[in-house]
Amino acid sequence: MKIQTSKLLFSLGFMLLMGSQAGCVHLQSLSQSTIPSERTQMVRAEAYRFYFLMFNFNNDYVNDMAEQLANQCPKGHVKGVLTKHEGITYFPIIAHATRVEARGYCVAGQ
Amino acid sequence: MRHHRALRFLHDFSSRLRFARITVVALSLTPMLLSGCAIMHHTQVGEIDSQAVLKGRRFEILISETGVNFDEAARVGKALTQHQQTRDDIGGVAGIISLFQMGPRTGNQVFSPMYADKAFDLIRKECPRGVVSGLVSIRETAKYPVVSGEIVKIIGYCRET
Amino acid sequence: MKFGNSILGRGPKALALGATLMWLGGCTHALHMVHEGDLSPSAKLGEARRVMAEGEQRVVMGFVGQTDYVDQARAKLEAQCRGGQITGIQSRYSTSHGFLSWTNRVRFQAYCVE
Question: Which residues of chain B make contact with A33, given a CB cutoff of 8 A?
């Protein structure tokens, strides 16, 4: 019994350690808009939300992503936007996260 | 004697009532089972040229592939037999097959993931010389028992130039 | 090792059936999403060239910490059309299932207008 308990604790601890280092990341969706011919300046925005016990009450964390991109390209257009929506599992059921990343190119004055 | 007849009548009546209830439930569920269940997985809306959308021609491209749910197939197989050893065998085979099908899923598994690639050319065919805008990409499933239709639907608008 | 009366204990026919079912079951895929990107109005598709790029990632038991294969596929697509505009991009994300592992695949196909 003691050996089984210690094995179980070791397994749980190992899973927690492995999960906490990186998290298991999987892609949920992606989209890519027209990529411009001028690709010198890249801009990037990210939205991240951590969930505890799968509770999430709103998705407002993605609302200002367009603004984040626009702030990095105040006098131009942001084109060729690749949007990646990732799900991250740190520990099953208990700790999850969502990350949405958008990266594109700032094209001047079009 | 009358007491026995009365009891028998009540017993027969309650059996018929139970059978009638089961029949009503089965008949009400049959259209639902036959019509399938529509599940939306992903929807994305693209850039919109208002002139193309409001004045252009709407087109819709629908591509589907048959998906199979092996777990459901195993459950149906088990339900169709009363032999316990056969049920165990079906469960064993289903378990082994599931080890070979690990991974994230959207809808049911298909045998080729490339069925939607032709949408790329079909959009061009719908609007060979015009402006295409307002593209909406939808990934959905029409679910039936054991099998499903894994559907990719593209809606767009073509404004001829 | 004794398998008794289970399917594994019933001889070569049962094993052949099992192996066939495993093979059939092992060729499954899941198409997660297909996205059709905008077609730039100024693009002259008659003069456009088709370009395509793929990226894939092998995952064992779900242990993976990044999705860089998407960025690599995009970089490959851009490399095929340097100096041109890449429009009408179709993005496909699918997974090919396997034994205790799977392969995530991303495919971009588009028009390169130079």
Answer: 46-47
